[in-house]
C-alpha cells in the first residue's frame, strides 16, 4: 500500500553523500531521490538544494508569490486535539460568525486586496455544520475568485454541493500519518477516524474540487516519516486526478500558551531541507508557508521553494472587520504584518505578490 514508506525511510537512513550527489544530479526526482534528499547526509548540501529549489520555483512560478488570507468562521469544535486552542476541553467562550458578520469580514478582506479566502472551522458540530459552511462558501464566492475550505472531512456528495456553491479548494492535513501518534493526540471526537480523514482529499477531488492541500503538523511525530507519507499521498492522488492542482504546506508546531509542547522539534535547517526536497520533487505544485512562522524566516523562504503564503492572518473567529470577541485563536501567529507591509517586503527582494491568477468566470 502506498502508505508503507518503510523502504523509503531505509533509503533516507542509509543514504551516503555520494547518493545525495547522484540525487541532486538527477533530471527527475522520484521516490528514491526524494527520500535521499531528506537524509541527514543531505544536510551539508543545503545551499545547493536551495539554489536548485529557487531555480525551479522561478521556472514554474516566475518571481511571484501567491497570497491568501484565512477566515475562521467558528471556534466550536467537538474534537479534543491536544495541540489546538479550539479543542472542546479548552475553557473559553466559543463564537461563530453570523451571516451579517461574515459579509462584513469578507468585505474587509476585499478592501485589503485579498482575492483568495480560506474558510476554517473545527470538526462538525450542530452549531457549525455542513449547511452553515455551504452558505458561507456561497456568500464568499460572490466576493472572491478563489474560495477554499479547511474544515472537517466530508462526503463526496457534500463536496459536490460545495463545488456547485463556488468552492475551489480543500485543505485537509492528515496532521500525522503515524497511526499510534494520531490516536494519542486526537483524544476524542470524529477526528479520531484516521481513515475517514485520509480518504477525504480523494473524495473532494472526485467531487470536482480543483485544488487540494496536503500536509502534516510538523512536530507531532517523526517528521521524515510523515513527509515521506505526504509525498506518497500527493503522488497517489496525482495518478488519479492529474487534472487537479495540489499544494503542500509546512505548518510547524510550537510550544503553546495552553501548555502544548511539540513532541519532535523541527529545526529551521530541517524545515529548509524538507521544503527544498519537496520543491525538487514537486516542481509544479504550490508549497505553502503560513504566518505560524516569523517574518524573517518567511521572507527568507519566499521564492526559495515557497510559492504561496498567507498574509495578515487572524486565527480568531473574524477579526478583519472589527476586534474579535475571541481572545484565543487556534494557534499563535508569528508574522503579524499587514498586506501592504508584507507586499513591500516581497518587492524589496524582487518578488511580486499575486492575489489572483484566474477568474471566477471560469469556474
Ligand atoms: S484541530 Fe480542528 S478538530 Fe482538532 S480541536 Fe482544533 S479545531 Fe477541533
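^ Assign residues to that structure.
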Amino acid at each position: 500500500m502506498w502508505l508503507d514508506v518503510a523502504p523509503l525511510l531505509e533509503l533516507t537512513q542509509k543514504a551516503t553523500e555520494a547518493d545525495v550527489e547522484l540525487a541532486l544530479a538527477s533530471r527527475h526526482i522520484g521516490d528514491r531521490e526524494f527520500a535521499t534528499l531528506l537524509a541527514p547526509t543531505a544536510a551539508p548540501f543545503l545551499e545547493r538544494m536551495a539554489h536548485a529549489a529557487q531555480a525551479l520555483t522561478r521556472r514554474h512560478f516566475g518571481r511571484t508569490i501567491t497570497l491568501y488570507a484565512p477566515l475562521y468562521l467558528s471556534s466550536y469544535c467537538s474534537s479534543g486535539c491536544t495541540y489546538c486552542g479550539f479543542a472542546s476541553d479548552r475553557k473559553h467562550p466559543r463564537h461563530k460568525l453570523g451571516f451579517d458578520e461574515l459579509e462584513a469580514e469578507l468585505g474587509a478582506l476585499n478592501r485589503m486586496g485579498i482575492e483568495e479566502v480560506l474558510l476554517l472551522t473545527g470538526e462538525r458540530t450542530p452549531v457549525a455544520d455542513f449547511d452553515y459552511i455551504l452558505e458561507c462558501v456561497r456568500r464568499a464566492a460572490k466576493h472572491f475568485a478563489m474560495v477554499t475550505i479547511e474544515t472537517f472531512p466530508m462526503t463526496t456528495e457534500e463536496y459536490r454541493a460545495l463545488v456547485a456553491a463556488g468552492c475551489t479548494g480543500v485543505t485537509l492535513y492528515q496532521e500525522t500519518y503515524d497511526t499510534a501518534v494520531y490516536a494519542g493526540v486526537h483524544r476524542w471526537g470524529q477526528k479520531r477516524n484516521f481513515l475517514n480523514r485520509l480518504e477525504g482529499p480523494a473524495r473532494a477531488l472526485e467531487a470536482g474540487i480543483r485544488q487540494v492541500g496536503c500536509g502534516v503538523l510538523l512536530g507531532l511525530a517523526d517528521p521524515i516519516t510523515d513527509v515521506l507519507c505526504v509525498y506518497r499521498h500527493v503522488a497517489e492522488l496525482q495518478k488519479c486526478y492529474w487534472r487537479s492542482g495540489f499544494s503542500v504546506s509546512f505548518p510547524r508546531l510550537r510550544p503553546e500558551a495552553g501548555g502544548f509542547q511539540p513532541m519532535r522539534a523541527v529545526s529551521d535547517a530541517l524545515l529548509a531541507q524538507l521544503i527544498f526536497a519537496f520543491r525538487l520533487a514537486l516542481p509544479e505544485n504550490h508549497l505553502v508557508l503560513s504566518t505560524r512562522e516569523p517574518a524573517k524566516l518567511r521572507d527568507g523562504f519566499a521564492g526559495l521553494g515557497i510559492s504561496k503564503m498567507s498574509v495578515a492572518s487572524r486565527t480568531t473567529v473574524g477579526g478583519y472587520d472589527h476586534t474579535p470577541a475571541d481572545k484565543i485563536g487556534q494557534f499563535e501567529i508569528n508574522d503579524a504584518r499587514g498586506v501592504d507591509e508584507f507586499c513591500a517586503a516581497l518587492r524589496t527582494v524582487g518578488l511580486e505578490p499575486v492575489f489572483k491568477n484566474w477568474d471566477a468566470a471560469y469556474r
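The beta strands are 64-72, 116-120, 146-150, 169-171, 211-215, 245-249, 286-289, 308-310, 352-354.
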